[in-house]
Amino acid sequence: MASHSLVQVERIDITVIVDNEVDPISPSNNPAVQYAGLLQGVPLTKLNPGNARGGAQAELRMDSICCGAHGLSLLITATKDGQKHTILFDTGPEGSTWTRNAARLRADLASVEHIHLSHWHRDHSGGLLDAVRSITTATAAAAAAAACSSTRQSHARDSLTVGVHPDRPDYRGMLTPTGSIVSLEADPTINEIEAVGATVQQQANTHSFLDDFFLSSGAIPRRTEYEKGIRGGVRYVAAKDAWVKDEMIMDERLIMCNLKGKGIVVFTGCSHAGIINVCRHAVELGGGLSPLYAIVGGFHLADNNPEKLARSLQDLTDLQPQVLMPGHCTGWKFKFLCEQSMPAVLAPSFSGTTFTLSA
């Protein structure tokens, strides 16, 4: 398979705005992954001189620590030859969680050029509208500040873009073992996203973006016999007033970067296609010329199906990734199995942590 256009970047910084778990204390388990443990990554608040604290200069506040939530949102910056591009990959389950954590991280929201929605599920799209509002406000403020500065550095750019798959369901839900249907909240509509200031790009095919720093897949081929999607998944079709089977979640797309001298770094929202199908497809998109280096995001193995766990672990081990950063829907058991089978490869994704991968 021919490789798609993707430049080699020298550094990737990943700030986890939303994930299911929080751990600002544990140090890095993988020498290839840099991040500040032991609470050193939590932003500090300066204390005024002359405070009655024996000369302490800063305060570690508990309201500076991010909160966990069932969802995923990653702020990703890729760097090459001093040029940087920043995207937001998914937006978590709700606006309040996203805006609170982004504020606690003191994230540079004005740097965000593009939001990529991995798939239409509320735990990934729920914070989208508030994320767009926050980013556009931060960008406008940065531009105004630059206009007033002596350097007159311009922050003008095209409007924030949001990349989504065109097959947005009216609703998604779950068929329970008793036969009843539980509906999720609706994802934001295209009109709602545009109304808060973004330009929506609806794309189903493989494409690179932002000077070929990033590549988005199209539909991920389903080839393994044991990765069968999300059991009981359904979608509501308003035109038919009916719920239909939707276990494969075919709108989910991965994104990837090529880290110089290391290989492919894959970002996956939920891996409804199966984490092995996701990783193998990423290698295919690279033309088979670069090894699989790192996998970041949700592996969707929290259902703890014994056969799926065992076969996923074996096939993942065979792919020989050097960095595993599982989060969200991966489940504790698979992370435990990975650490046992591939010692020191694991670097779990935690809300509020910034991870750095370098060439």
From TrEMBL:
<dbReference type="InterPro" id="IPR001279">
    <property type="entry name" value="Metallo-B-lactamas"/>
</dbReference>
<dbReference type="InterPro" id="IPR036866">
    <property type="entry name" value="RibonucZ/Hydroxyglut_hydro"/>
</dbReference>
<dbReference type="InterPro" id="IPR052926">
    <property type="entry name" value="Metallo-beta-lactamase_dom"/>
</dbReference>
<dbReference type="Pfam" id="PF00753">
    <property type="entry name" value="Lactamase_B"/>
</dbReference>
<dbReference type="InterPro" id="IPR041712">
    <property type="entry name" value="DHPS-like_MBL-fold"/>
</dbReference>
<dbReference type="GO" id="GO:0016740">
    <property type="term" value="F:transferase activity"/>
</dbReference>
<feature type="domain" description="Metallo-beta-lactamase">
    <location>
        <begin position="74"/>
        <end position="139"/>
    </location>
</feature>
<protein>
    <submittedName>
        <fullName>Beta-lactamase-like protein</fullName>
    </submittedName>
</protein>
